[in-house]
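In the design runs reported in the main text, the only information available to the sequence generator was the tokenized backbone. The following block is the verbatim input for one such run; it is reproduced so that readers can re-run the procedure and compare outputs position by position.
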């Protein structure tokens, strides 16, 4: 089961500038900045109640974020839904015909296991499924 929108991912050019911008919009500072080396991104997170905003900056031109910005410019990149059972949700959604992006699930930012549904099957929205890693 998917439980809630965990975060909205936004592709941005420059993390320092975007941090300043979103601090102004949201009235709070980011609580975390984290590099995800496997994805060639650096991220920062804001939290309002249970909803987070994830800002993503590419660290090199091979990053999916760099390619996204090249094609579409800055903007909303993905919507992430939380689940308590990522394996079960992947199984449910693949049995419904959705395609999980290659190489996932794997560890993502903010202590999560993550997987993405291919946007060609989701009306153009990159859907992330994420599950808190319990230590
Ligand atoms: Co995300």
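Verbatim output:
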């Amino acid at each position: 089961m998917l439980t809630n929108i965990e975060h909205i991912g936004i592709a941005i050019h420059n993390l320092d500038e975007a941090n300043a911008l979103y601090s102004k919009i949201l009235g709070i500072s980011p609580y975390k900045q984290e590099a995800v080396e496997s994805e060639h991104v650096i991220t920062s997170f804001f939290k309002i109640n249970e909803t987070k905003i994830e800002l993503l900056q590419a660290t090199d031109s091979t990053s999916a974020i760099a390619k996204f910005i090249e094609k579409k410019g800055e903007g909303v990149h993905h919507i992430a839904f939380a689940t308590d059972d990522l394996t079960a949700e992947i199984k449910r959604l693949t049995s419904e015909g959705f395609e999980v992006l290659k190489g996932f699930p794997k560890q993502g930012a903010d202590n999560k296991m993550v997987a993405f549904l291919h946007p060609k099957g989701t009306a153009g929205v990159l859907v992330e499924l994420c599950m808190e890693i319990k230590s």
